[in-house]
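Intended use. Records like the one below are meant for learning the mapping from a protein sequence to its folded structure. Do not use them to infer anything beyond what is encoded.
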Amino acid sequence: MSTDAGRMLPEVTAESRDFWTGGFNGELRIYRCAECRGWIHPPVGACWRCRSRSVGPEVASGRATVASFTVNHHPWFPAFPPPYAIAVVELDEAPDVRLTTCLVDVDVDDVEIGMPVEVTFEAHDDVSLPMFRPVVA
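Structure written out for the chain above:
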């Protein structure tokens, strides 16, 4: 892991590269099995459902629902003053695929389980981190 402006950045691997760089093109790329069509996250070389090795990245809608969240009140990193919300979101395409993410563009007091959210990206040198914000009606 590296840091950029105080944020811990992920180590990019061959399997995770599309996930971490898709945001540069405005795309949330999630692995999907070509055989059973199941979505897979984190990205791995075989489908956990049918064991097929015919898996690779596909563009997801970027829409999700907050399944769980916590509000951080501790000042872990100077670049991220508290409070801020960390959430587990379920992808609309596959509720069994969950991403742990930061919620942005929302007051922490307004975050709710079941809240519809959409992806947005925070670009760094070699990664574009997927974050989620409330869907504006």
